[in-house]
Amino acid sequence: MKANTPHFVYGVEDTICYGGHYYTTCLMQATLSSLIHSFVIGDFITNIEHHPPGSCCNIFYCSITHACLNAMALKQVSSLLFSCGTDSHMATDVVLQHLPDIKNFDGILDLLSLCILVILGNVLDFQTYSAPNQHQTESATQVQRSLMNRFDRNDIQVDERMAMCHGRGVAIFLLKWVRSCCLVTGPDGVAIEDLPSLYLVKVLKALLSYKRMAQKKRINGTPHCTLSLLERQIQNVVQCDPSFETQWRNRANLPDDSLNFGKKDGYKVEWKTGWEDDWFRLASGR
Q: What is the pTM of this model?
């Protein structure tokens, strides 16, 4: 069953159900939407207590992001993009088979969705909104509140937060690469300026609107997460990159009623000639 699929289980007799999650790059748009649904209204849409998405899930997202980075840095992706025929090493290269198909618009959105998941690692992690050693059902003590307010300490372990910082850097680097080397035009033939930042800000605006609506209707999601705390985390995200800040300041005309990009028909993707040189120049900071 794909991510973001409404479903229910009907048992005709006493049953023990066992399941798990499987992440694939071709479904990252749906995965992003489903995780935000669980984050905002988890108690309303499920009777299962999932482990906080961060301790283990972020490891998977970061691993996939690293696979994309390594393949591109090694120029292996160029054969995937521009090969005119079949290549035996492409058919046998397991890594390349699992990369997003970035020669089309849907694949670009999957790559961007993956990067956004990593960038929002702290934002969507349940533990972000709990003080150190604070249980989901307990109120924070004065000492715990002080640790959160004065030192930005939460229930995520320090080593996990460092790993999330590294993963966020890799994801932002990939967004810069797409911004630098990929030209996306809309159905009207007009180039979309800075698609990565535009998509990220659209998701953030929809997330805030979603949380505001859920809080108004008293629908619970992530424990201890209030609208003001979520806004604080989002503000931290948009400060990670000047392009994010620019799009965030100009978000007024963006819709906030959908976690998806919208209609994708008619969009075209074109990679710049000699993009590998741009990639290495970007990587070296020159």
A: 0.85
